[in-house]
Every structure is written in structure tokens, then in C-alpha cells.
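Good morning,

Attaching, inline, the C-alpha cells for the sequence recovery test we're adding to the shared suite. The designed sequence is right after.
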């Protein structure tokens, strides 16, 4: 499919024209995804428990629904109306899928006003974390870099697009990502760390929310990558759910020295949920285990650690933010 996507670059035309609308529709038809793409047996993922599989496959179908809606109607008001029919606690996944579709269209059929920017400045503001992540799926699908959409992204949250890149690679190429531990050659520096956070998130899906399998697969990676992978696992477990309290407790035990990274990922998830509302019961339960606090308190820590934020050398502000949150949880754990 990559070659099909690239070939459509030759069809790019100014947005708003009759030809432009025809091209948009044609590319939308070409890029549509079947809901079957979310089926774990098709993906080759671990079967896991029936409850976890149903939960995570449902998330995938919601993502695909949002993606296909965005291909079918790019009018911001009509798209928002369609996405907002999704059950509130699942709505972020629909916006994530829509962001992937709109970013693909921005890259393949560019127009004066970027579709992704319209989403971020409009109805997608409440789901800004997942919209940034969704943009990264498109970058991965086309083999493009974050700089290709940077003008539409928030300067701090732009690294979440690389997180989305990592999730895409783990979700669509699990053997290459988790068996061979391959990362894209085009990514360098801090982008590789953001990529690994997303890869850790995808691991939650690939191993069907099974803490033991997640931990075992993660530990096969070079130890230098463990911290970011655990951060991603914490984010996915907290935002997506799929397990009960005993599963969260086991995951925290398996994380061991990386528990602060698990907590940092959980705080990010809590912040994303808090921004979008309403709260999800599994996010609350996860934060009680990983952060020893309510989801609202964990989101508050993520907010508080933004104050006076500065980058450090080759580490961007995004990493300084993550480091502050980890330090907060490390300090709290050592004081008990």
C-alpha cells in the first residue's frame, strides 16, 4: 500500500476546486480501512482473555470508524458531528483515527489550509493528545518525518506524533518490531525515544493486555529501551484498559524499578482523559495502582510539572516534562 499512497502524490491539486474535491474523494476511497483490520487473529496478536480482546478490538474498530468518517467528509462541522456520536469515553480513539486520515490527505493532496490544523483548532482540541498521535500513524504509513506536519502541531506535544509512529509500527509490523527490534532508520536522536513510548503502547495490544506476556516481550529488548517502553505500557494500560485491579497490580510488580515510568505514562493518560472528559472507570483504577492517587490528581501532577519547563541540551521540553513527572513519583515512593 505504501507505493499506492506515494503514487497519489502526483494527483495533488489545490483544495477547494472541483478537481480537488474529486481527487479527495478518489483518494478517500483508496485509503479506506476495513473494520476487520482490528481483528486480533488477522493481526497475529496474542488471543488473551475474551474480555481484553473484545475491549481492545473494539478500540481498533472505533479508530477505523473515525478514520473512515474523516475520509468521507472533511467538512469540520460535519466531521465533528459524526465523531461525536461515539460513546464519550471512546471518542478519543475516533478522533485519533480521524487525525490519521486528515494527515494522510494533507500529505497526499495538500491545500492552503491544513486539515489537521483545522481539527486541532476546532473539535479536536479536547482530544489534542490523541490527535497528535493519530498524525504519527500517517507519517509511519507514508514513511515521512515529523517535520512534514510540524507547522500544524503543538511545539510541546509534537513528539506524540513520533509516539504514534511507534504505535503504528508495533501494531502493523509486530514481528519486525518485537521479534527483530527494528526501528526506522530515518529516526534519530530523541525521536527514537518518543517512538519507543508509542511502541510500548502498541505492546499492550499485541499481547492482548496480558501483563506477564507484556513484561516478557519487553524484557527481550536492550535495557536502554526499557524505560520508554514501560512508559508506553503505562499509558496504554491506563487509557485503554482491558484488565481488572489484580492485573494492574501485577503489571506494577513486573515493572519493578521502572514503576515511575509506568506512573508517568499513567499520568499522561489521566491528563488526556481529564481534558476530553468524562472519566473512565478503568483509568481511575489504574491510577490508584500506578500513581497511588485518583486520575484527577495524576492529571494535576502532569499539569503542575509544566510550570517553567525548559529543555536540557539535546533533550527537548517534552522529555523534561516526562522526567519531572517520573521524579515526582520516584520521590513519593521513596518517602513511604
Amino acid at each position: 500500500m505504501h507505493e499506492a499512497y506515494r503514487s497519489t502524490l502526483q494527483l495533488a491539486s489545490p483544495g477547494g476546486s472541483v478537481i480537488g474535491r474529486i481527487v479527495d474523494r478518489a483518494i478517500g476511497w483508496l485509503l479506506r480501512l476495513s473494520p476487520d483490520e482490528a481483528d486480533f487473529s488477522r493481526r497475529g496478536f496474542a488471543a488473551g482473555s475474551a474480555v481484553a480482546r473484545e475491549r481492545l478490538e473494539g478500540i481498533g474498530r472505533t479508530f477505523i470508524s473515525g478514520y473512515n468518517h474523516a475520509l468521507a467528509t472533511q467538512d469540520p462541522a460535519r466531521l465533528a458531528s459524526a465523531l461525536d456520536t461515539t460513546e464519550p469515553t471512546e471518542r478519543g480513539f475516533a478522533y485519533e483515527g480521524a487525525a490519521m486520515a486528515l494527515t494522510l490527505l494533507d500529505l497526499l493532496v495538500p491545500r492552503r489550509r491544513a486539515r489537521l490544523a483545522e481539527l486541532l483548532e476546532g473539535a479536536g482540541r479536547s482530544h489534542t493528545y490523541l490527535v497528535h498521535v493519530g498524525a504519527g500513524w500517517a507519517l509511519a504509513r507514508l514513511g515521512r518525518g515529523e517535520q512534514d506536519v510540524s507547522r500544524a502541531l503543538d511545539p510541546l506535544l509534537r513528539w506524540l506524533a513520533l509516539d504514534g509512529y511507534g504505535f503504528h509500527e508495533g501494531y502493523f509490523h509486530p514481528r519486525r518490531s518485537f521479534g527483530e527490534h527494528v526501528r526506522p532508520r530515518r529516526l534519530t536522536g530523541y525521536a527514537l525515544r518518543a517512538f519507543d513510548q508509542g511502541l510500548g503502547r502498541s505492546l499492550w495490544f499485541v499481547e492482548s493486555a496480558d501483563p506477564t506476556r507484556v513484561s516478557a516481550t519487553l524484557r527481550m529488548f536492550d535495557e536502554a529501551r526499557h524505560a520508554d517502553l514501560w512508559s508506553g505500557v503505562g499509558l496504554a494500560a491506563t487509557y485503554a484498559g482491558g484488565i481488572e485491579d489484580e492485573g494492574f497490580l501485577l503489571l506494577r510488580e513486573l515493572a519493578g524499578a521502572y514503576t515511575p515510568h509506568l506512573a508517568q505514562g499513567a499520568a499522561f493518560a489521566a491528563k488526556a482523559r481529564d481534558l476530553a472528559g468524562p472519566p473512565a472507570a478503568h483509568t481511575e483504577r489504574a491510577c490508584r495502582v500506578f500513581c497511588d492517587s485518583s486520575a484527577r490528581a495524576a492529571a494535576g501532577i502532569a499539569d503542575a510539572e509544566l510550570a517553567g519547563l525548559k529543555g536540557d541540551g539535546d533533550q527537548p521540553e517534552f522529555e523534561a516534562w516526562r522526567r519531572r513527572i517520573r521524579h515526582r513519583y520516584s520521590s513519593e515512593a521513596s518517602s513511604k
